[in-house]
């Protein structure tokens, strides 16, 4: 993941959020979960800034979308309390793995600040833009 690509992905996410009337925070990390780019749209709350970064880190560290991980992280699930590992993770929608055209993981995007469903849709749209 390079900065130029990350900035294009953030622009895509912003456009998708604006279509829905949302102001969100968007984090892009590389395949090792290191930050590459971040944006907090005008009008976005402050709290989702941390949430977006944790969503992206979660997806990158486990190479699995945060929504999918969340299904197994429920009480009684195989990875219950996953959120308390790796300095804090998120196990609900909005963190999506980013793959290049060859299917290689290049990073992840985290979107937070809209509804969970809208966060997930925006993040999935970002991932689809790479294909």
UniProtKB/TrEMBL annotation:
It comes from the Bacteria. Gene3D superfamilies: Haem-degrading domain. Pfam families: HbpS-like. PANTHER family: PROTEIN GLCG (PTHR34309:SF1), SLR1406 PROTEIN (PTHR34309). This is Heme-binding protein.
